[in-house]
Amino acid sequence: MESLSAQLYAFAITILAGASSGLIFDGYRLLRSVLRPGVWSTAVMDLFFWLVLAPVLTIYLLMANWGELRFYVVIGVVLGLAFYYLLFSHLIIRSLVLFMNSIGKIISGILGILIPIMVLPVGLIQDIGLGARARGRGRKKFRIMPALRWQSMGWANLRRR
Questions:
Q1: Could you give the CA distance from residue 19 to residue 86 in angstroms, rounded to a whole number?
Q2: What is the DSSP letter of 3?
Q3: Among 30, 46, 63, 128, which is most exposed with the fewest C-beta within 10 angstroms?
Q4: By the 8 A CB rule, do 90 and 106 touch?
Q5: Mapped to the 3 state alphabet, what secondary structure does 36-99 carry?
Q6: Interatomic CA distance for residues 23 and 52, integer angstroms
Q7: So where are the chain's domains?
Q8: Between 71-87 and 4-35, two packed helices, what is the crossing angle to 10 degrees?
C-alpha cells in the first residue's frame, strides 16, 4: 500500500491533468471558432485534438501512479476539468482572444506597409510599358489593385470623418 503523501501527490497530478485538458480544449475551441471548419475538416481537427490530448494525459498518468487507471484518477481529472472551467476558462479565453486580435492587427499593419511597397514597382512598369501599349490599341488600362474607397474620397473628406 502506498503512503498517504504518494496518494495525495498522485491525486494532485490527476487534478493538474484535468486542468491541462481543459486548457488544451479551450485552445481547440478558439481555433475552431476562428477557422470555422466544415464537416470533414472538423473530423480531422477532432482527431488531431485527441492525438494531442491522449499523450498528454498518458504522461500525467505515468507521472502520477505509473499509469494505473483507478477510480480516484477519473475523479481527479473530472475535478481538475471542473476547477479549470469554473475559475480560469473565461479568463484564458479572453486573454487568448485579445492576444490573437493584437497579433492580427500587427500582421495587418505589416502587410499594409509591405503590399503597397511590393505593388509599386509592378504599377510603375505597368504605367510605363503596358499602359502605353494599351492606350495605343484603344483598351483600358489593366489595374492590379483597384482604387480603394479612401483613396478616391480625397483628404478633405477623410478628415471630416
A1: 11
A2: -
A3: 128
A4: no
A5: CCCHHHHHHHHHHHHHHHHHHHHHHHHHHHCCCCCHHHHHHHHHHHHHHHHHCHHHHHHHHHHH
A6: 12
A7: 1-87
A8: 50
Tens-place pLDDT, residues 98-153: 998 999 899 999 988 998 888 888 777 776 765 555 555 555 555 555 555 544 54
CA-based torsion, 38, 41, 43, 46: positive or negative: negative
The C-alpha torsion from 64 through 67 and 69 to 72, rounded to 10°, is: 0
Q: What is the pLDDT of residues 23-37, one digit of tens each?
A: 999 999 999 988 899
Angstrom distance (rounded) from CA 72 to CA 9: 12
